[in-house]
Amino acid sequence: MLTTARDLFRYNREFRVGTLLTGFIVAFAALSLVSPYPPQDTFVVPPDVSPSLAHWFGTTSRGQDVFWQLTFAIRNTMLFGFAVAILSRLISITIGMWSGYKGGFVDRVLMSINDTFIVIPLFPLLVLFYFVMRDKMSWPLLALAMACLGWSYDARLIRSVAMSLKSREFTQQSVFSGMRTSEIVLQEHLPYVLPIVFYTTMNNMNWSIGLEVTLSVLGFTNIDTPTIGVMIYWANQHTAMVAGIWWWIFFPVLFVVILFIGLFLLAISMNEYIDPRSRLARMGRMSG
Amino acid sequence: MSAAGTPLLEVDRVRMTYVVGGLIRRRGVRAVDDVSLRLEAGNPEILAIIGESGSGKTTLARMILNLATPTAGTIRFRGADVTQIRSNRQRMAFMREVQPIFQNPFEAFNPLKPIDHYLFFSARRFAGARARIDFEAKADKALHQVGLSLAEVKGRYPHELSGGQLQRIAIARALVSSPSLIVADEPVSMVDASLRMSIVNLFKALRDELGVSIVYITHDLATAYYISDRVLIMQRGKAVESGDARGVLDNPQHPYSILLKSAVLSPDDAGRPMSPADSAGRPSAHSTSNTE
Amino acid sequence: MSPAGPFSAAPERVLTVRDLRAYYRTKYFGISREVRAVDGISLHVDRNEIYGLAGESSCGKTTLIKTIVRAIRPPLDVVGGSVTFHFAGRDRDIHALNDSELESIRWRHLSYILQGSMNVLNPVRRVRQSFVDFAHRHIGKPMPEFLRHVESHLARVRLEPAALDAYPHELSGGMRQRVTIALATVCRPDFIVADEPTTALDVVVQKDVLGMLREVQQEIRSSMILVTHDIGVHANITDRLGIMYAGRLAEEGRTVDVIRDPRHPYTSHLVTSLPRIGDVTQRRGLEGAPPNLAVPPTGCRFHPRCPLAMATCRAEPPPMVDVAPGHRVACWVTAPPDKPVTVQ
């Protein structure tokens, strides 16, 4: 695994740039641990100060330092996206592989459920969720809700991989070697499925972050915890653009765009890794 | 256990019908139509099932291996109906005795896993090996029976080996459980000509030295002639001729068998002008594409 | 030998390949690999003859074919040597032609029959359309006349005119292959390249199709290179036969000579190891495996598997030597070069 990462870094430009960008964001988010200002406090610094040596990214109309606020915002946004991605991966892998391997009735039932989820309009559903939950709305709850909605596209993808693997001769060979179904799925098939899962994880993170920003900007989340979307929400509330406090919007947007691009590049750089022909060529190199 | 005289394998008037067509018009395609054969226990032999694509030979093989269920007729292994195998224990007991060899040696192994992995699993599940030492020993023994050794094979991936070596390893894996029946579906058709005969000779050795019976599925009459004891010729799902290998192939009686034999292209034909293909008994040239 | 006319002039050369080298060069993650698929091949094909090319998997025969028809794409690269066709009185080095010259040659002078006829026939167009796409511009007649010409050509491969209306999937494998043969021969090309034309077909259909191929070739007097690993096919249809091993020619000569009197140890193994109906003599396989062309053996590439290998075989690749008129072999042991090599 590590040699693969090292090789990708050295020879694949997309992976290199993607890693650097994402790494930069992660490092930035880590700074939140040493922030001098607690994230939810307001009026701790002079408001509406433009970027300067004292405040690198300026300050907001609520008297918060944009730089330090941003460290929390990007950290929370990233963690949120990550949590949704991991949870929904678990659901999509389980359903996809079970459906693909079992086939028949189980497959039909699961895919009907799957397709229903694909068709449901997510955004209105999440807004409705907010209105129902109101004060009880919390980030973990929202993450869970989004995870339960975001697994369906990738479940189908994983299912088709599982189906094609099932019909390959080496699967029969495994059966006649006495391997149990669980062993076959975990040991023989998962290595094929995992790179695709990584790709879909990056994609899913981008999707969930985008959705979170949208919901937050509109005020449909817990607006006390700073995230990128929440920062923009407050900036809109204080009509920052009209008031000329451009830095309040510019820096959150810039950073989330950097994060998006970083994740996107990581996702597409995996394409070359996933392609079986290049994998086998790499293995050929390993053996000399 | 089984009474003396219980045949090893008994295929009794077996039929496999596929339904094709949509909601309005459906018709049945008989992939295997009323085929019977019998292998005696305690008398290892090689039975060649010869046919072209669409003859149903692969479907028949799958039914014998219990990978497909016949729509009519029965298949009995050592007296027990194969389709009645339900529990895991019964399935493992069956697989211990009946093992497959597949046509494509490059597809038969997972390219992402080392080859010895299948040997070790077979040793653990079928040969009762517990510790690592045990299953390596069993794997090594099986590999020696095919002319290889564990040292040569350990840790290697499929793409590092030739088709002939892969097929030999597949045979070794099948031998780990000491099976009494091996079903080989076109085992040498994808193996290079220079390596082919070592695999074919290996099948002979399995019968003679290890007492394994082999159902050898092929379209190549020459190799069938060379190693089989009996042959069964199939055309479009039906068995058209069967009997002693040399007898049938030296002197075919059924028009299709005669046609098949005349169509064989042999290196010995060099220097003779090509004879025009006979029109008698030739299957209709205007048929639609065959299904397997 | 190609059937000579009443004036037994020297046979007319249609294709000359001289010391051809074509390698696959890849660079993955910093590691360069060079697979020497074709490594110094020289051969020639005369008019109205079928030249057979035999060899196992990864011997380089498909690469050789690709190089001859100039279907070169990276990572394949022609590293040395030449492929020269002689059409209509002119010599043409196929790798030196520009695109429009190549267009005018393809199908009119040089056509191909591939394994798996679906590669050539467009599955969403009727057979008639494929003929129009490939051949109309070369034959140049107005459409109705062209179609009549095609129909009479189809009769040669015993296909009804109704086949023109069909889609490829509606025809059986044998019929499709006959369409492919008709397609490749309708313009009466000087040279046809056939790559495993009957391998995917049933044995019975195969013999039929091969017979037709031979008939059509003789009637239009074109030359052909027929590539297949099946020695039985070569015995029945080719005039001359070249045996390829690991990117080089091991032996070449008239088919009947190469099969009845093989001189190279590899050829003699190939021919004798195949079982025949009516004969139960013990046959043996060859030790070892075809070599990895990225790291080929030194000297003669067959030496690791050869029962006759000597020290020289490991050190130096053997030259092609004439052992009889028209029959040449590259082997230090069975064809030592005390006679000078005749340049062909």
CATH superfamily of the domain at 43-67 and 87-265 in chain B: P-loop containing nucleotide triphosphate hydrolases
Report the major sheet of chain A. Answer: none
Name the CATH architecture of chain A. Answer: Orthogonal Bundle
Give me the secondary-structure category of chain A. mainly alpha
| Structural shape of chain B | globular
The tally of helices of chain B reads: 10
The parts of chain B where pLDDT drops under 50 for at least 5 residues are 277-292
- Please give the CATH architecture of the domain at 43-67 and 87-265 in chain B: 3-Layer(aba) Sandwich
List keywords for this structure.
heterotrimer; A: 288 residues; mainly alpha; MetI-like fold; 76% helix; B: 292 residues; alpha/beta; Rossmann fold; globular; disordered C terminus
Structure description:
The complex is a heterotrimer of chains A (288), B (292) and C (344). Chain A has 288 residues and is mainly α. Chain A has one domain: Orthogonal Bundle (MetI-like fold). Chain A has helices at 2-11, 13-30, 66-102, 104-119, 122-133, 139-149, 152-166, 169-176, 181-217, 228-237, 240-243, 247-274, 276-287. The longest helix of chain A has 37 residues, at 66-102. The relative contact order of chain A is 0.15. Chain B has 292 residues and is an alpha/beta fold. Chain B has a domain at 43-67 and 87-265: Rossmann fold. Chain B has ten helices and ten strands. Chain B has helices at residues 57-64, 88-97, 116-126, 132-145, 150-153, 163-175, 193-210, 221-227, 245-250, 255-262; strands at 9-21, 26-39, 46-51, 72-77, 80-81, 98-101, 181-185, 213-218, 230-235, 238-244. In chain B, the strands form two sheets. A six-stranded mixed sheet of chain B has the order 6-7-8-3-9-10, with helices on both faces. In chain B, strand 7 (181-185), helix 7 (193-210) and strand 8 form a beta-alpha-beta unit. In chain C, the strands form two sheets. Chain C has an eight-stranded mixed sheet, with helices on both faces. In chain C, helix 3 (127-139) packs across helix 4 (143-156) and helix 5 (173-185) packs parallel to helix 6 (203-220). The relative contact order of chain C is 0.13. The model of chain C has no long low-confidence stretch (mean pLDDT 85). The chains are: A mainly alpha (288), B alpha/beta (292), C alpha/beta (344). Chains A and C meet through helix 1 and helix 13 of A and loops of C.
